[in-house]
Design brief:
alpha/beta; globular; nine-stranded mixed beta sheet; 340 residues; 2 domains; single chain
Length: 340
């Protein structure tokens, strides 16, 4: 286990404490997590049962930001399994965005005309309990380099596709050499103009943004966009700020999307603070998502009228460029649906 005090920016880490080591040594035992944070779980059997359905995973840099002894810490609530996950609710399903019907090839999801998403890996650095892909059939979407050629050929045959999104799992959990190869293959398709990477790694393991990483992100002709996922201002510390600034200094556009979560960020003051901290670090707020109704996440949901009122309060606090768009993704629609 890596002592939290030993975790610093990549440029100053001891050679053995790499982002890969931090990723591999993430906490996966819920009992250990509770003991580390001096928290007594209310229902240990249900906690373990919830982990059987969707495993726990918390890396050390993120764990270091959670307040010990506080069972309502907003970062802890995003990662700690709860009894409520075991309850079934109408409308909360294993595939809330109907991705299985937009998965024409292994590793490829095509929901919107001009954008194609590549499911590059099933691995994430952290398991968010509200994840809409917690039951995604990753076993049917694993690709070797040879297999990827079929997906790349699919993109090459559709000139309306001008943007490729790397998602997962978290694409940044893959080795840089593999990502460099995939980025290069995408760049070889003439009508693709942008490469977008959806990742939580710079937030939960900011050591991930190394010179090698910046190298492949900037090595092609493509305009590169990194979309982070941060939900609470307590997630943005000095190391995360430094990682974002390294991306920005390399000429990469950095955006953030959040999920609106009951009990975590459902106050205007919290969301305003998040926008301010992100922008100070060099990241522009992008989307505020209504919760995707994935099975096991009902306890995070807010009613639409609550979400709209919250968004209006946020507009009153912030300049327009710091107010993320409040949206919901609805299956079969040609774009995100704006709620406000």
């Amino acid at each position: 286990m890596i002592p939290v005090s030993a975790i610093a920016c990549q440029d100053t880490c001891a050679p053995e404490v790499t982002w890969q080591t931090i990723l591999q040594q993430a906490v996966t035992d819920p009992v250990e997590l509770c003991e580390r944070l001096a928290i007594r779980p209310e229902d240990r059997p249900s906690l373990l049962a919830a982990c059987e359905q969707f495993a726990l995973r918390v890396p050390e840099p993120y764990l270091a930001r959670i307040e010990p002894g506080n069972p309502r810490d907003p970062l802890l609530l995003q990662v700690l399994p709860q009894v409520a996950e075991l309850q079934e609710y109408p409308g909360f399903t294993s595939d809330p965005l109907d991705e299985r019907n937009h998965n024409p090839l292994p590793g490829l999801v095509h929901k919107y005309d001009s954008r194609v998403l590549l499911v590059s890996t099933s691995l994430c650095a952290i398991h968010c309990r509200y994840c809409f892909r917690r039951e995604f059939p990753y076993q049917d979407n694993r690709n070797s380099r040879q297999d990827w050629q079929e997906a790349l050929s699919y993109i090459g045959q559709r000139i309306e596709v001008n943007e490729v999104i790397l998602s997962g799992g978290d694409p940044m959990s893959l080795p840089d050499r593999q990502l460099a190869w995939l980025a290069g293959q995408v760049a070889s398709i003439p009508h693709v103009a942008r490469l977008r990477i959806h990742t939580r790694l710079p937030v939960v393991i900011p050591q991930r943004i190394t010179q090698e990483c910046l190298g492949w992100l900037t090595s092609t002709r493509l305009q590169t966009v990194v979309v982070l996922h941060s939900n609470h201002p307590n997630e943005i510390d000095g190391d995360v700020t430094a990682a974002i600034q390294r991306l920005r200094q390399a000429g990469i556009t950095v955006l953030n999307q959040s999920v609106l979560l009951a009990g975590i960020n459902d106050e205007a003051s919290t969301l305003a603070s998040l926008s301010e901290k992100l922008f100070a670090a060099g990241c522009l707020p992008y989307y505020l998502h209504a919760l995707d109704p994935v099975r096991g996440s009902r306890h995070f949901a807010l009613a639409d009228d609550q979400a709209i009122a919250l968004h209006k309060a946020l507009q009153a606090r912030l300049p327009g460029f710091l107010v993320p768009r409040l949206v919901r993704e609805l299956p079969g629609q040609p774009a995100k649906t704006w709620l406000a």
